[in-house]
């Protein structure tokens, strides 16, 4: 099989990169990532590979897939266990991913991903609070599958990859979370793959990359 190469942006701040990266890292498929820092001379590589000139972009032989959700769907064709096996559960998992992909604009704007920082977000307006409440509602649904694992649909799926950047944002900004949400966050934060990504994010920032 051709090598899977995922072009990603800064590990500290590129939430769209983290999503397919985490799915890929959890898939068991052999892969390599190429980190291209925003504003660097190497960004020409992204412009050459991706029709949108954005990260993430997946290169697999002659195939190029740009956009985080499309990349995750492509990976799931190679590693079907990335989606829940049950059709109804899979549909719901896809819906919460689509919701994240096209929604939560206020949360994204006010609580930008910044993995290695800890900061005060300032007052949260009602629009941000409503989006945070919606995240908690999505996460609370996992209680139905708790006997199968700690993740949104029991075992790890693309849905968890899609919400992982939100987990890091809640840590960065010290967002108060209910106990059940805290347990979900811990399950995500304890993933060795996420720990590895976060360690690289810190190294990036320590090296002065912003
Ligand atoms: N909808 C796209 C969003 C991709 C995106 O906005 N990527 C940002 C980084 S997180 C980017 O490459 N920005 C650089 C630019 O716009 O030049 C996806 O889901 O992959």
From TrEMBL:
Keyword annotations: Transferase
Q: GO MF annotations for this entry?
A: glutathione transferase activity; maleylacetoacetate isomerase activity
Q: Which GO terms describe its biological process?
A: glutathione metabolic process; L-phenylalanine catabolic process
PROSITE patterns assigned to the protein according to its UniProt record, in alphabetical order: GST_NTER
Pfam families to which the protein is assigned, alphabetical: GST_C_2, GST_N_2
Tell me the ranges covered by the GST N-terminal domain, including all copies. Answer: 4-83
Q: What is this protein called?
A: Glutathione S-transferase
What taxonomic lineage is listed for the species of origin? Bacteria, Pseudomonadati, Myxococcota, Myxococcia, Myxococcales
